[in-house]
Amino acid sequence: MYDVAIVGSGPAGATLARLIGKDYRVLVIDRRTLSGPVGGEGPDRCCGGLVAPAAQKVLANMGLGLPQDVLVGPQVFAVRVMDFDNNLDGDYQRHYINIDRAKFDRWLVSLVPPSVQRRDGCRVRGFEPCDGGTAVRYVSGGRTYVDRARLLVAADGGNSLIRRLAMRTWPDRMGPMPQRYIAIQEWFDLPEPPPYFSAIFDSQITDFYSWTIPKSGALLVGSALRPGRGASGRFDLLKRKLTQLGFRLGRRTRREGAFIYRPRRMAEICTGAPGVVFVGEAAGWISPSSAEGYSFAFDSALHLAAALRGGIEGCQARYAAMSRGMKLKIAFKSIRCPLMYDRRLRGLIVQSGWRALSTATGLLPAGRIGQAAVAPG
Ligand SMILES: Cc1cc2nc3c(=O)[nH]c(=O)nc-3n(C[C@H](O)[C@H](O)[C@H](O)COP(=O)(O)OP(=O)(O)OC[C@H]3O[C@@H](n4cnc5c(N)ncnc54)[C@H](O)[C@@H]3O)c2cc1C
After folding, report:
1. How far is the CA of 158 from the centre of ligand 1 (A)?
2. Angle at alpha carbon of residue 146, lines to 141 and 150, rounded to 5°
3. What is d(CA 374, CA 377) in angstroms, rounded to the nearest whole number?
4. Which chain regions cross the lipid bilayer (predicted)?
């Protein structure tokens, strides 16, 4: 019997395993193989790979700096807001660190102490209460395995299987699920991509946002879309609009997707169920305004590790109490959402030039951009 079984070794799961791995008997299960080279077995996590200042601060608090190998060029110092609803754009200074997400995940996993048992390439299928804890069932190479642990930690990201199963098992004890979006992201060869992160607002495409991110000889184009049959067509519409604006989308080299949670109320954050604790995006820890998730993944792992310092008994209540500040942060970001997502308010802010950079990159017509009149395909 393990003390703690963690499902998922993304930023939340790997950080928790690193922090508690020397004090507890820990098992980490991930469907990906994060010890091998990038591009090895299975797809990597679909992500923009921008480390925002909030995540930089948590990394600093944890005494970590990013290795050179994880960084990719260009480093971006500006976000270009492209408001297609109001035909406006504006550049704003931001300090992101541009990274290779696949290498970032491997680096975080490389910090996990060897005493932690890792099962890579294993997909968790279910869990059930057992004597003294929880039994977790997973498959690998066509075989099914079961391991038992005193505590199960769900760190399996947006659209968490553990959260969905817990919802089915304890419908009255789990809060509502956060709104779920499907993120589609494509990579295009582009030797000199525009050196800024663009955040695109267009209610024809999504009520969340779309983006372009330069990535070492490539341009990423992505969008967080309401799931459903029209999602792919709305993504195509985004690409057509970008092309009309002068974006050169070279050869497409990759298309990827992921679900993404967007919590709008504190009740949608779920820190625990009987025998199960949720960290990272599985809990709903992600910014509802920007989809920044690394800082929340790290912070939730830090709080759970601190709660576990008092033992497994009672750790859920301690974790819930410690993470109240994070809930307030999400509530605050949710309250601020209309500034970005209300068409009229956003238009007023962008038009006012408040806190905008005076420089124009020249790629788009300065100030006003044309509304591309294209119907969804
Ligand atoms: C398109 C996109 C772009 C984003 N860009 C950014 C960004 O630039 N900056 C930022 O801060 N945040 C970004 N985010 C959010 C960020 O990626 C997440 O919030 C963050 O990765 C959450 O970390 P996590 O450890 O909770 O979950 P994840 O990183 O999702 O890790 C979950 C892990 O669990 C594993 N897993 C899942 N299900 C199972 C299963 N059944 N069995 C076994 N293993 C399983 C997965 O393989 C994965 O390794 C983006 C999200 C998306 C979708």
Report:
1. 6
2. 140
3. 8
4. none
- Distance, CA 297 to ligand 1 centroid (Å)? 9
Q: Find tokens 């297609």 and name the residue.
A: 84
CB 114 within 8 A of CB 18: no
CATH of the domain at 159: 3.50.50.60
Task: Note the helical H segments in 87-146.
Answer: 101-110
pTM metric for this prediction: 0.95
Quick one: average pLDDT of 226-238?
96
Residues 282, 237 share a domain: no
Structure tokens at 7: 């499902």
**Residue 45 pLDDT class (50, 70, 90 cuts):** confident
| CB of 284 sitting under 6 A from ligand 1 | no
Per the structure, how many domains does the chain have? 2
The alpha carbon of 225 and the centre of ligand 1 are apart by a number of angstroms equal to: 17
In sequence order, which ranges of 279-342 are alpha helices (DSSP H)? 294-308, 315-322, 324-341
Tokens coding 280: 């990272």
Q: What is the pLDDT of residue 352?
A: 86
Between CA 316 and CA 149 the distance in angstroms is: 15
Q: Is 262 in the pocket of ligand 1 (CB under 6 A)?
A: no
Domain residues for the domain of 211 are 56-99+179-262+342-377
Task: Please tell me the predicted confidence (pLDDT) of residue 359.
Answer: 59
What tokens were used for 351?
Answer: 């038009």
CATH code assigned at 369: 3.30.9.10
Distance 189 CA to ligand 1 centre (A): 24
Query: Strand 272-273 and strand 133-140: pairing?
Result: unpaired
Query: Token pair 């788009």 is at which residue?
Result: 364
Residue 299 is encoded by which pair of tokens? 């912070």
Burial class (CB in 10 A: 0-12, 13-18, 19+), 74: middle
- Judged against a pLDDT cut of 90, whether residue 35 lies above it is answered with no
Per-residue pLDDT reduced to its tens digit, 183-229: 999 999 999 999 999 999 999 999 999 999 999 999 999 999 999 99
